[in-house]
Design brief:
single chain, 187 residues, Rossmann fold
């Protein structure tokens, strides 16, 4: 497949987190493709609310949204053995790895050479850790991981402003049933 120039696939976790990163990438000159792959989100009703917010955002920003299959069993299988890990522990790393790997595989299937994620905009997420996971996947797939700390220069405030202006759904936990149980608020 011919290499696509100036295109990037961004893994999006929710409308709140992806507003500013998508805008930022567009300002950099990229043609952005939002890839919504989040089999970790529990329950399915929560998944649908976040997907609907992402649809609203992408329509507003005029970017293509690719809705990957919602397959929670794939997530549970991938994090098997890490269910009792604390938030920000190894289970979360595995979850990030799964979602970023699928994003890179999608980019590869489309002939796109770069991928990134909106997850890093959250002040509750570790930019260095996510960049290490992205770099590892980059080496495995040959697709460049663009490590941008979107929370710099008030990125988190800017993304919240975009989501408030659009009236996007605002979740109060990261997404998986394990985070829901621990009442960790990440957005």
């Amino acid at each position: 497949m011919e290499q696509q120039k100036n295109k990037i696939v961004i893994h999006t976790c929710c409308g709140i987190c992806s507003g500013y990163p998508i805008s930022y990438l567009k300002d950099m000159g990229y043609q952005v493709i939002a890839y919504f792959y989040n089999p970790n989100i529990y329950p399915q009703e929560e998944y649908q609310k976040r997907l609907e917010a992402e649809r609203t955002l992408c329509k507003h920003l005029d970017v293509e949204l690719v809705e990957a299959e919602y397959n929670p069993e794939e997530y549970y299988e991938f994090v098997k053995g890490f269910e009792t890990e604390p938030e920000k522990g190894k289970r979360c790393d595995k979850c990030f790895e799964l979602r970023l790997k699928k994003t890179a595989q999608y980019a590869l299937s489309q002939g796109i050479n770069e991928f990134t994620t909106s997850i890093v905009i959250s002040p509750h997420k570790n930019f260095v850790k996510l960049s290490e996971i992205g770099d590892k996947i980059s080496k495995e797939t040959g697709i460049n991981y663009l490590a941008i700390d979107f929370k710099k220069k008030d990125g988190f405030l800017k993304t919240n402003k975009i989501s408030k202006e659009l009236g996007l759904y605002r979740q109060n936990y990261c997404g998986c049933k394990f985070a829901m149980k621990s009442h960790i608020f990440t957005s």
